[in-house]
Structure formats: structure tokens, C-alpha cells
Write a structure and sequence with these properties.
The structure is a homodimer of 706-residue chains. The first copy, chain A, has 22 helices and 29 strands. The first copy, chain A, is α/β, with parallel strands linked by helices and 706 residues long. Chain A has 5 domains: 160 residues, NAD(P)-binding Rossmann-like Domain (Rossmann fold), CATH 3.40.50; 142 residues, Succinyl-CoA synthetase domains (Rossmann fold), CATH 3.40.50.261; 160 residues, Rossmann fold, CATH 3.40.50; 77 residues, Dna Ligase, domain 1, CATH 3.30.1490; 118 residues, D-amino Acid Aminotransferase, Chain A, domain 1, CATH 3.30.470.20. Chain A has a 6-stranded mixed β-sheet with strand order 8-10-9-11-12-13, with helices on both faces. In chain A, strands 15-16-14-17-18-19 form a 6-stranded mixed β-sheet, with helices on both faces. The N terminus and C terminus of chain A are likely disordered.
Chain lengths: 706, 706
């Protein structure tokens, strides 16, 4: 191994020339002994300096009484000493010119204010010496290429993981160890693993930014609890997207009870889980719920090429498994288009018992005529033009006679093929590793194989997306007052930003109502104005679609005459006249400043039903009109915008423009405005109309927020 | 092994005294050799008769030239002969008094009409001799207790599965083999496995009905494509429910493309997937999407007790894993209530660094103080009163020092405990098997452990449900004409069945409108009646909430005066007068005869939004009002019924009564009525009102249906 050049950033950790272990133990099972032991096991070729004033040698290496006694420079220090010695030790590291320090000890910010102060001191020492800190309260890290293993995680017990292309980043040490152990159990090749603990300095986003640039790392899995430095996180995800490296994120605390448990367990700010999800997926990462899902996708991404689209070709020896995989494709958003008719004909000539449409069932005839497998696969590869393939071969894949035949056939047919092929079969670890090496990931459960291909397709769609979709709308004036606004003022401000609002005026008698109606433009709606009448419709207090001045006057006169009799105790303050907004779809459009992720814009289906079964899409503000169109397409009830029951489609472009304009306002005023809400926003075939609006400045209770 | 008594049903297969293999091969790898080989491997202790006219012995057993040459009685015949010899061979079986026959050969109904005729002939022969048929085109069966192994499935290659309590039923032979192989790879103990193929006689429901009564079988997994004998299936599921045996069903063909592939692959009728799901879950089974999900649940159900409710206690060595499991619990519908305060205090005294609320994080302190594990578990068992427990112990479970300590601690604490405890950890097969034997299922992925406990809780809730919830409403007359009904006639018929309908009448002029309104009761709605005006509201053609005769007359006069000017080409046929239905929630209530599952009743949220994002619940008709209340509770937007934005709750009991009444009508007329639809059904605080109704008789095109 050649000597490494230590550059800035996190190279002091992942790529050091010399490591000192302070508090080094001769016992390779102890916390102070493990890093030394693991570094040597992992083949670290740089200098290793055990620091231990009581011994001449540690694990066979010459020991030093103190860091100052070390003859050469030290890039990385592993601090395996008690919490109360950390600050002094860190100062010594600074004086020695150490560039990175790993602090295992707990007893800092996780204990409350006093611990936080002690942790702040560590950070100040590190900053003063231009030194990066990993931890405290972390399990350290492991880097496959350099062999640097600044960790005591039991995840390295029983052996270093197979060298591979996957990077793993975890806030939790214990869960990080679980991840590392699962990765080893699943033959997932690991390039680097890091646990960030309390994140006094180095955070999950910092590690992601580092790993993204590492040519050894081709896919990254993250386990996180709270988010520090959302901007760094999103920028690193965006960078990974441009470099076409999948980023998978497990973030816990999605549920109320989970979030509650998390905030008792970490010191993280409580942002909204939905905002987090929207922002990281917008940047190009994929949020996953379970560890197995994350590993499945990392595994496939580190073995196979990425699919260019959502068209799945299904090859199978079992009709039933074919149907099962077609169902799974549908569930996960992949399409299963049929083979071209001439190819179907050729395959039927080749095997009259086959069902070669897609799923392509070559049947168990292949036991006696093995060429069927490659012939059918060739047809699919050459004429099906699928973006991804899955092949169900059940126990054949591991069988004594058929297994090697299948391996030859598949690796031969797929050599150099640039689209992913997932094998479903029952096979031993050795055969599976051979398939891995040939670029063919394997799964026992067909549903899981299809789910993974779908996830790869989603990631690849993110890679292919241009960095910026369209331009943000230009607003002449994005300023909003930081004080409460009346509804009328809010509407006026939105109208000024290019979001039209519905006017409404109050008439005191029937004649004035008719005059207002003619001025506004007919038809109009008329409503009795009374703070005491909740259900106006029930007592004739609402008239809709009044199409002439006479009709307005008649209806107004009838209301003013009849309603006092129906509701004798109600104060009647007049009649509200508004133009008929026309038929349309009621939406909700709004922004909300998330304490963690910043300004978010939201569009949703309006109306009372949406209150109990919300249908909303979030994005980080600002968004372009193109991005806003994409938000609309992701509404569960998006088809409502296309016209239902013979209604015409609404003007999606106008809605998208309003979303973009509101998002620009929200982003420009993120420091002073908490939320903007237009509810309802009426979308019609001819445009949009804000029927009601609210702008809420940030309150004093939000001030504790940095 | 003692001799078995052959009883009726499927005992001839699973529990025979004597088996003949017709077409027996000396080569244990061939189709005719495998059943003999497997029977002996599985320890079948009855008589085994190879039938082969060309050999004296087969696999060391004396061979017979024909079935007639066999000296004693034969219960079960395995027919490993070509399709064209099956009929004659079956006749010979009949003459010999064989009770059950397994037919491996393909070449019957799956090939079309001619094959169907050949298959019908087989069934006729079997019926004539009171003999049951398994297949044709199947892979046979395997029974652990008797060792009877009438199969050539490669799923038995490399060894018979571990003896256990799980029954597996599959239509697909190839996927059935995959299931058997996966079961073996996952150390799932198998009691019986059967593949039904073309189901000329024995169907999946028949096998289920048999296995449910087998004391060796405690949980059953089914893989199915089409459904034959829905009534048998539902009755067997109901029987399993009463015997408290979990039934898990994977039914493929849920997606359009999957269904299309399936119908090209099987000869099954196309019922609705939603009807299937509703009916089997109503009967007490659980539908699962993936094989791993099915095996996870079967595994846990065959190892652990069932949870009595949905309260999950989470014990963990990692705060992060605790949060992750709390999230998973929320996702899968389990609750995570906190520990009592005094217990929390005791645990904090025991370990001040713990977070002992729930999740209960005992922390890695337990490495040095192992009693923390049992102390905290004891607190949770004695004071938490959880229905199910999950414990996260990561690599501890398989570690050299901690592994055995943990095993002692957990098995000691949990011995005889009647609630499930799922262990999450990384452990070898041997340790996992020891935990299994101790009633503690183990998983590597915490999310998966929680998902399984949630599935067990759902199954157990089904077990606890009384067989009949309440009584069906009594209808004096359930007859419906089998001919088309006008809307008015349909409403009248529904009103007679106890479902009130909204009247509407037509007025020709303003005076008549006012008179009708007074007769109906004020307030009323008034609408212009014209086949040519689609958007009545836009031109003033709708007036709502008219509260006096004068207001009706004014509004009617205005419409008749103004609308001809607005819409000069529209034919105006009069004015529609209806009572104001009042505020309420629009529902859809209907029935639909499913070609496979029979009459289904459906309730859903109404309105235009529901058209694009449907929110409906199905059940097999008839249902009692209690069952109907349960349907309402399962609507995604069920909260709408409780009143939103200050509205009062609607009368759920009235809605449920209407659902039950309609379901009784649908069930009573299943032979002649295709569908009944009430859309909308207005639910108000005071009751319900059908605003529109349609009754559709079965058309001639439905007649091909048996």
C-alpha cells in the first residue's frame, strides 16, 4: 500500500498515514484494545502508535507514554479514555498536530445541559487546532481501503466485512453495529462504515458529503435519528444524484410514539417527518422503512446496472410465480408490457406449451431442453426492450445438475448487458457470490426481487432528472411584513404576487346587492351575513348562481324578509355578495417553515373529506412550475384535475404557477413568516382563484430556534 | 408406527395404510422413482407396492406387474404414467378399491376444451368408484406424520423438511416446490404439504378443510391462483378461526396484468380481487402479499403464543432500534403505551442512564450488569401488561459470552409466559433453533419482528370475534323482480325494505312549485328540469334552502323568466322540487354479485373526490348491523361520520341498518340480481336518505356462469 496524502475534510479519518490509540489496551477485546486489533486485521499499512504510560508494548507494538513521545506526525487519534480525561487529551492532540480525533466516551450532550457544555468545550478545542471530531458517544468508523479502523464495534468481531462498494453511515452506535453485522451476514461488500454519535462536529451529512466523493463508494445507506445541517445533507444528496450514486435513508421517529421516544433519546430538533421525506426525496435520495429494504437495494445497486425506466420483463419456469411477480410489479409501480407479437410467435414455435407474453413462462420443459432458457432470454433481451429483468428459477439455481448449467447460460447471455437482471432462486452462498461477481443479484423471494428493481428504477429516474427543472417565477416584490395581516391584506399581497383572489363585498339592502352584483359581473352568490347563523343553507340564507340583477334583488329581498322570522335572535349584518367562482376543484395551497428542513410548500385536495383523509404533497421551497406540476401529479386524487363526471380539466399550469409563486414568497420570507395558507384555492378550466387566505408571521415562541 | 385407519375425506392421501406407485422406477431421481424414494426417506411404515411389469424389484422392493397382482388392499395410488394411460389406470385403481389417486401428468384441462373433456372423464371414473383425485397436472403431496410422500417435487431433494406444525397448500406445483424449499431453508417445521394442480376433484378448499381438522397442524399457509368452491373455502377458514389456527393466504392475480397472465395460465373464473380479500378476511384468514411475509407469520405462529391485543412492549439495548420498532408498530397498527410511572421510577433507580418508558432502553450497561435485562423484562411483564413483546439484542444473541447468558435470562424469564416475545438479534441457526424450542421466535430485522407480531394480533382478534355478531334484520319481503326497474320503482322497493328515500316532484309553474313545496315540507330545493342544461348552477338554475312558499314561488318565477334567455336552445320541462335533505355525509351503498365469491355488499364515501380516490369497504352479503358498523369503522375517512368542522356526528346505526338491509336483499336475490346501488346515500344526524337508486338484474351475458 502506498502512503496516503491527508487532505482536508474527513480524510484524516478514512485515509490516515498514522494513527495513535490513546488508552491502548493489550487486550484486543477491550475498548482500548479493539481499534488496534481491528486496524491490523484490516491491513492498515500506516504507522500505529499505542499510547499507554504503563506498558512498553501493546499487542506487540512499541507503546508510548504520551502522544508527545510519538516520533513522527499523527493524523488520527482514537481516544479510548474516560470522559473526564477527554478535554485534556484533546488539547494534547491539538498540540501534536492531530487532524482528526475519535471520541468513544459517553457522558456529554446526551446527559443534558452540563454535558452539552462539556461537549461544547471539546468542539472549541478542536476548532482552535483545526481538528475534526468524530463523537463523542460514538462507536467510531471503519474504512476498507486504508484499513483504518477507529472503532470498538462488535460488528468487526469474527472478521472484517468483505471489501465492497457500499458506504454505511449511522448515528446510532448500537444500531450501526447491527447494520455492520447484518451486512456481513448478507455478504454485502463494505467500503466504509461510520457512526457519528453526538455529532459535536462531524455529522451524518458531513460523512455523506465525504463518501459521495470517494470513488470506492458506489452506494450509501444511512441510518439517522435527528437532522443537523439539513443544507449539507441535501447538497450531498444532490451531489450523489449527479454522480449517480444511490443514497438510501432510514430515518426513525416517523410515528408520534417513535418521535417521542427519539427526543427523549437524542437532542435533535423536532422537524416534521413529512417535510424530511419530501426534501430528501426531492434531492434524489430514497427513504426506506426497514433495514432489509435498505440492504436489498444497496446490494442490488452495488452488483447490477441501474434500470433506465419502469418496464419489467419477467422470465419464469412457473406460471404462478410469473403472476406473483406481475402483481408485485404493479404494487411497486413497474409496468409489465407484453413481448412483440412476432417474438411471441417464435417462442410458441420453439415451445408450444410456453406462455411467452410477459410474464414469459418457458415451462419446466427446460429440464429436458435447457436451451429454452437462453433462447427465451435472448428473445426478451433483443426484442422486449425491457428496462429491468427478473428471472424465476426456484431450486434450479442451486441444484447439482441444473445449477451450473443455469449459471453458464445466464452469465453467458448477460455478459456486458447494461440492464439489471435479478435472479430468483434458492442457492448457496458460494453460488450467490459467483452470480454477484457476474453482476447478477439473487433473491429467494420473488416479491423482494421486484421491489428492489422498482427502487433502482426510482433512483435512476432521479439521476436522469435535470438539476433544475425550469425557472422560478420572477416576483417584483417578495417582501412580506413580519406582523399579522388581515385576511383582506393577505389576499391583496397574494394578488400582488400573481395569485388572483376572489373579491367579496357587503350590501345592506336588496338594491345595493343588485348594484354590487352588476358591478362584479353576474352570476353571483348571495349569503346572509350574521355571526349567529351557522347553517345558512338550512334557513334559506344562501342563494347561488343568481344570473340577473333582478334575481339578485328578489333573492336578497326574500332573505331580508324571511330570515328574521326563521332566526329571530340572529343579528343580521347585511348580505355578502361574491361573484360565482364557477365550477372547479377545491385545493389547499400553503407553505410552512419546518424547524429542521426550512420552508416547505404544500398542495393538497381541499374540502371536508380531505380533512379526515388528507391528500397532500410537500416540497422544499422554492419550486419551479415544472416541479409544481410534478407535485400535482403525485396527489392521490390527481385525476380530479383532469375532469370527472364530464367536467372539463382544470388549468394545471395555472395551479403550478401559483404553487411556484407562493413557494418563492415562502422561501424569501423564511426568517419571518411561519406559514401561508390559501384554503380553498379554486382551480377551474380557466385558471385559479384564492377564495380565502392567511399569512402567519413567526411567533416569539419560535425564537429559540437557531 | 402403528397402522392407520383410513377414514373418508382426504385421509387416503395423508394417512394411508398401503400405497401403490404405478409406473414405479428403479431410479430414485425419476418421476416414477421419487415417490417411492421419498416415502422411504420420510419413514412411511405402511405397505409400499411398486407397479412395474418389466422388473422383479424396484429400489429393492418386490415389484408387481399390475395393480391386480398386489396381494392386499391399496388405499392410495400414485400414477406416474403418461397422460394417455391415466384413464385406464384410474379404472384399474377403481376396481382394486383404491380410495385416493394422485395424477402427476399434465395434458388435461390446462390445454383447453379437449383436455377438459379428458379431465372430466377422469373425474367421472373417480366418482363411479368413490375415489378421490389429486391433480392432474400436480406435484402431489407430502405428509410428515405418516411419511406418505406422493410427490416428485424437488423440494424434498436433499432431505425431508423438519417435522413441524405448519401445513402448506399450493395450486402451483413449481411455486409449491419453491415454498417447500424455502421452508426447509428457513427451518420451518412442516406437517403437510400438498399441490392441487388442475383440481379436477380435490381443491385448495378441500385440503384446507382437511388440514384444519388435523391436530398435527397448527397454522396453514396457502398459495392460490383461482378459487373453486368459495363456500368450502370460507367454511374451512371459519372452522380454522374457531379452532384458533391461523390461515395465511397468498392469492396472486391481484393486479390487472397479473390477472391477465393468470387467466392465460389457469382455467379459473375471474372474480374481483377485492371481493376475494374481503370475504376471506371476514371469515378470519389473513391475506399476505409476499412469501416471506407468509413464512414469517407461520413461523412465529407455530413457535409463540398469540397476542391478546395490540399493545406492544419494546425492550431494547439501543435507543435508535427502540424508535425504529415504535415506528414499525405504528405502521402496522400496534400501540406502544408507556410503562406505569412507578415502574419507570424503579427502573431509573436501577439504571439512571436508562430510558424506561416504552420503548424501554436498558442501555449497553447490561454488558457489565447483565441482571438489567431480566430486571427490566420482569418489570415489563409484570407491570406493563403488554399483549406482545419485542426485544432488540443485536449481536449479543449470537455472541460467545453474552449469547448463552441472554438465552438463560430470556428463557428463564419467559418460561410459561402466555404472551409472545419476539427476539431481534443476529444468531446462528443452532441458537435460533434453541430459541424456537423455547417458544421465542427470532428475527434479524426489527421491523419484520414487529410486523409479524401485528399480524398475529390481527389473527387473534379474528379468533376472539364471536361467530355471529348480532342478528340479520328481518325483511317481510325479500323478493325483487328479475327485470329492469325504473328509478322510482327501485326507490319504492328499497323504501319497502326499510331504506328511506328522498321524494322529488315536477312542477310546471311557479304556483305549482310553491304548492308542492308546502306539501313536502319546507325548506326545499328547486332545480330547472331540462335535458339540455348540464351546469344548472352556472345559469341560476338551482336554488337551495327555499324556506317559505313565497321564496319558492319567487325563485321559480325568476328561473322560468331568466333561464330561457340564458339558454335559448334548452328545452325546459318544468321545475324539480325536492325537500332539502339537510346537511350530511354523502355515502355510496351497493351490492354486487361477484362471479366467484357471490353477493358482496359495499359501502363507501360518496362525492366526486371518491370517484378518483375510492374509499370503500366490501363484505360478503348478508351482514348484520354489527358487522356493518365494523365496515364503516374501516373506511379511510371514517372520521367524516363523526362530524368535522363542528358538524354533528351522523347516525352510524342508521347507516349500518341500511347496509344490513341491502345486504339481505342482495343475498336473497343473488341468482337474479347483479347489483343494487344507492348513490348518494345521505347520512345525517337523524338518519339516512337514499337520494338515488338503481337495481340491475343479471343479464343474459352472465348466464355462462355456473
Amino acid at each position: 500500500m502506498t502512503a496516503h496524502t491527508v487532505s482536508k475534510g474527513l480524510d484524516a479519518f478514512f485515509n490516515p498515514n498514522a494513527i495513535a490509540v490513546i488508552g491502548a489496551s493489550d487486550n484486543p477485546d477491550r475498548i482500548g484494545g479493539r481499534p488496534l486489533h481491528f486496524c491490523r486485521q484490516a491491513g492498515f499499512a500506516g504507522a500505529l502508535y499505542p499510547i499507554n504510560p504503563t506498558r512498553d508494548t501493546v499487542q506487540g507494538l512499541p507503546a508510548f507514554a504520551s502522544l508527545d513521545d510519538v516520533p513522527g506526525p499523527v493524523d488520527l487519534a482514537i481516544l479510548a479514555v474516560p470522559a473526564e480525561q477527554i478535554a485534556d487529551t484533546l488539547r494534547a492532540c491539538g498540540h501534536k498536530g492531530v487532524r482528526g480525533a475519535v471520541i468513544f466516551s459517553a457522558g456529554f450532550a446526551e446527559l443534558g445541559a452540563e454535558g452539552q457544555a462539556a461537549q461544547d468545550e471539546l468542539l472549541a478545542i478542536a476548532r482552535a487546532h483545526d481538528m475534526r471530531l468524530l463523537g463523542p458517544n460514538c462507536l467510531g468508523f471503519f474504512a476498507a481501503r486504508s484499513g483504518a479502523s477507529g472503532t470498538f464495534s462488535s460488528g468487526l468481531d469474527g472478521g472484517i466485512p468483505a471489501r465492497g462498494k457500499v458506504g454505511l453511515i449511522t448515528q446510532s452506535g448500537a444500531y450501526g453495529t447491527h447494520l455492520l453485522s447484518m451486512a456481513k451476514a448478507r455478504r454485502l461488500g463494505v467500503a466504509a462504515w461510520v457512526s457519528t454519535g453526538n455529532e459535536a462536529d462531524v455529522t451524518v451529512p458531513d460523512c455523506l458529503a465525504h463518501m459521495v466523493e470517494d470513488p470506492d463508494v458506489s452506494a450509501i445507506g444511512i441510518y439517522m435519528e435527528g437532522v443537523k445541517r439539513a443544507d449539507t445533507l441535501l447538497a450531498a444528496i444532490e451531489r450523489a444524484r449527479i454522480l449517480r450514486k444511490p443514497v438510501l435513508i432510514m430515518k426513525v421517529g416517523a410515528s408520534d410514539v417513535g418521535a417521542q421516544a427519539m427526543h427523549s433519546h437524542t437532542a435533535s430538533l423536532a422537524g416534521s417527518d413529512a417535510s424530511f421525506q419530501a426534501a430528501v426525496e426531492q434531492a434524489g435520495a430514497l427513504r426506506v422503512d426497514t433495514t432489509e429494504e435498505m440492504f436489498d437495494i444497496l446490494y442490488a445497486a452495488s452488483v447490477a446496472p441501474m434500470p433506465a425506466g419502469d418496464r419489467l420483463g419477467i422470465l419464469t419456469v412457473s406460471g404462478g410465480a410469473g403472476v406473483l411477480m406481475a402483481d408485485a410489479a404493479d404494487r411497486h409501480g413497474l409496468s409489465v408490457p407484453p413481448m412483440p407479437k412476432d417474438a411471441v410467435q417464435r417462442m410458441l414455435v420453439r415451445n408450444p406449451f410456453a406462455s411467452p407474453r410477459n410474464p414469459v413462462d418457458f415451462t419446466a420443459q427446460a429440464i429436458n431442453d435447457f436451451g429454452l432458457v437462453t433462447d427465451f432470454l435472448d428473445e426478451m433481451m433483443q426484442h422486449g426492450d425491457y428496462d429491468a429483468y427478473v428471472g424465476f428459477f426456484t431450486s434450479w439455481a442451486g441444484a447439482a445438475r441444473l445449477g451450473p448449467m443455469l449459471f453458464e447460460a445466464l452469465t453467458g447471455a448477460l455478459a456486458g448487458f447494461d440492464r439489471p437482471f435479478a435472479l430468483v432462486g434458492l442457492l448457496g452462498d458460494e453460488m450467490a457470490a459467483r452470480y454477484d461477481a457476474a453482476g447478477i443479484p439473487s433473491f429467494a423471494d420473488p416479491s423482494r426481487a421486484v421491489a428492489v428493481l422498482a427502487a433502482l428504477a426510482r433512483l435512476r429516474a432521479g439521476f436522469d432528472r435535470p438539476a433544475v427543472a425550469g425557472a422560478l417565477p420572477h416576483l417584483d416584490d417578495t417582501g412580506l411584513p413580519a406582523t399579522p395581516l388581515s385576511e383582506a391584506a393577505a389576499k391583496a399581497r397574494l394578488a400582488q404576487a400573481g395569485i388572483p383572489c376572489l373579491p367579496e363585498e357587503v350590501a345592506q339592502d336588496a338594491e345595493e346587492a343588485a348594484a354590487l352584483a352588476e358591478r362584479m359581473g353576474l352570476p353571483v352568490a348571495l349569503k346572509i351575513l350574521s355571526p349567529d347563523i351557522a347553517h345558512k343553507t338550512d334557513i334559506g340564507g344562501v342563494a347561488l348562481g343568481l344570473a340577473s340583477a333582478q334575481a339578485v334583488q328578489d333573492a336578497a329581498a326574500a332573505m331580508l324578509r324571511d330570515i328574521p322570522a326563521k332566526a329571530p335572535h340572529a343579528r343580521v349584518e347585511g348580505l355578502l355578495v361574491t361573484p360565482m367562482a364557477g365550477e372547479g376543484v377545491e385545493l389547499i395551497l400553503g407553505s410552512q417553515r419546518d424547524p429542521v428542513m426550512g420552508p416547505m410548500v404544500m398542495v393538497g385536495i381541499g374540502g371536508i373529506l380531505a380533512e379526515v383523509a388528507p391528500d397532500v404533497v410537500l416540497a422544499r421551497a422554492p419550486v419551479t412550475p415544472d416541479q409544481a406540476l410534478d407535485m400535482l401529479a403525485r396527489l392521490r386524487a390527481a385525476a380530479l384535475l383532469d375532469g370527472v363526471r364530464g367536467r372539463p380539466a382544470v388549468d394545471r399550469a395555472a395551479v403550478a404557477d401559483a404553487i411556484a409563486r407562493l413557494s418563492v414568497l415562502a422561501a424569501a420570507n423564511a426568517d419571518t413568516i411561519d406559514s401561508i395558507e390559501i384554503n380553498p384555492l379554486l382551480a377551474t378550466p380557466d385558471g385559479i382563484l384564492a377564495l380565502d387566505a392567511l399569512i402567519v408571521p413567526r411567533g416569539r415562541d419560535a425564537e429559540e430556534d437557531p
